[in-house]
Request: fold
Amino acid sequence: MTELLDSHAGTGLKRVGPLWMTLFTVAWLAIWTIQLTPIQLLLPLQLDTGALGENWIGGVVWAGVVLSVGGLIGVIAAPMAGRWSDRTRSRWGRRRPWAICGSLLSAIGLVLTGLVTGPVAIGGAWIVVSVGISVASAAFTAMIADQLPATQRGAASAASSSAQALGVVVGVGTVVLSGLGIFESYLVIAAIIAVIGVAAALWLPDEPAHRMIALAPGSTARRSSSLRDSNFLWLLSSRLVVNIGNALGTALLLFFLLYGLKVPAAEAQDDLLLLIAVYTIFTVVSAVVTGFVSDRASANPVRRRRTLTVLSALFGMVWGVVILISPSLIMTMIASALMGVGYGAYMTVSLALATDLLKDPEGHAHDLGLVNVSAQLGQLLGPLLGAGLVAVVGGFWLLQAAAVVLSAVGAIMTYGIKTPGLVPQASAAVARHS
Reply:
């Protein structure tokens, strides 16, 4: 019976090799590059409405609206695409067709975003990008639960989190250092997702769903059963709150340099790239270390991951306090390092924790699509909330204070996850049927 369950769940408890991890990491590197480069640099440049002393707040507000409204459609698409992926029966597998379609749709949307002008048209094109990213993300994320044992899920989650930090460096670095124009920049990142996203989807294993063995009679797994679990709902809610707090510190960073620290426009892009590089180094190191620590053998691995999730969310408060106390370029660089440590650890271990809380083997893509949504929705609501806070006080201090509060609230909410006797899904299945 153990073999049947493992076959049904993908590769079950079989450990994957370096090639799988490499392809998975590269796929996420492409996804994060095309999502964060426009958010951090290209969209603010397109939507900036003036210089200091003019209508610069209008640009901040439009950036918040476009990122939030356009992305909300993508957020809705993620669980829908996940559910369709779970139900897909084709010789190409369940995940591969959706990963390919999402990658190509993202590429088309990026080209459109570079072609159009005006906030409404840009927002409409960004919807296409967001939907494509959500579809591809749902498919790739499901592979963690489909194919990895609990002892490798932290490492895979670290790969995804590290790729997030590296992606923005790759994208912004390419644009800034090469001096590309806005449209040319969109073409380059569109090519990245079209080539890398499709290639990774083709090379990563994905057993044809029609060959998978059905659940044994009397199985307790039900569709969307994770959504009936209070632990899973607490995780989704806390991830949403923490990601809103993080987005307050990242999405409007270019505007903060220009109008908060009054960095000259000619220097702002270079300073942005430097801050992103610092953020990336600390995010990657933190993600890798935390991922492997969370994978270590433990009597209650879920409790270990919950504790690490709480601590990393609390650490995310520190950066906001630093900038509030001393808003300068040097302190912003220090805050970027602190933010990287906290967020890299948080995104790694909270995703690994999510895979441990899954209830339904036939709903991996749908449920993990919701986990992605909780992060994406936070990253999309953050700019909108941040723009409102900036407009209210005519500056950035209230935005930074809100980020501190939200990080603390998200950490506290994580304690809603009850862990006594809780073990990861795959291990529990083996224990029941060995």
In short: The chain has a mean pLDDT of 82.
